[in-house]
Amino acid sequence: MKSKFFYTNGTGKLHAHEKEKPLEIKVRSYTFNGPEDRQAMLEKLHICSQFDMRYRGLLEFYSNDLAAYKRKKGSGKHANEFLRILAKHFTDHLEDKCPSSWEACQPSFWEELIHITFPRLMKISTKQRESEIFLLQLNRFVRWLDQRVGTSWYELVKQYTETAKPELIMCERLINYLVVRTYPSIHQNNWNFKEERAANDADYNQCTTVIDSVYQVEEVCDNIITVTDLDTSWSYKLANMPSRLISTGMLLQGSIGKKRGDYYWNWLGVSGVYPAKAKNHFTLAD
């Protein structure tokens, strides 16, 4: 499955880069088979709400397994965060193209979870261990899943996580650096989001040209990097970038801008940083 191509419009929110479509609302019904069935659904609703799974997921095959894993792990914060990301992978990323079973999941399901969904939902933190923790939790879950339902995903997923780990760690360091550069006080208790946002907007508004897109790093030289816009294939040179944290092939999602008279472009705001393999799962909408 291919991911939609997203961009930021300067508000910090993600928007699908596609023509506006008429609003469609899909409704599904579920008939209880008695009081016990109703009680079981309410219990599952309570459990799944603890890791923010959307209601639509309650009617899908995976909800029973995610709820069972939550019962097993209890209130552990790392497992809970992992389940939050996995649930969003199903309900938000796959949307209405959800597989019918764990057996029906293709290898691309796990690749997109690792290379697209996790980086998009990764939390900014001072310890910067989110990648290591997520990959460890993923391996633990898949091993448990194989034992529970009889699948055989563990060896493949383990291979994916081992390969992705160095890249995800680098992506995590870069997005943390860029976010802190934009919001220097983000980790302080007295962080004033509105104040720092206003300062960032002022710099944003001084630019005569702003482009919101996903860019692939083509070259790194000192603090200058060359990137290619995945939408237009145009190249841009960005100044004042932390080259020690950037590798060729990496994908940067966000805004770049240039003031009148500038030769180099500047990075304005980041929405996501993805490993090179994520490019295989992006589709550019018309």
TrEMBL record:
It comes from the Bacteria. This is Uncharacterized protein. It comes from Tigheibacillus jepli. The lineage of its organism: Bacteria, Bacillati, Bacillota, Bacilli, Bacillales.
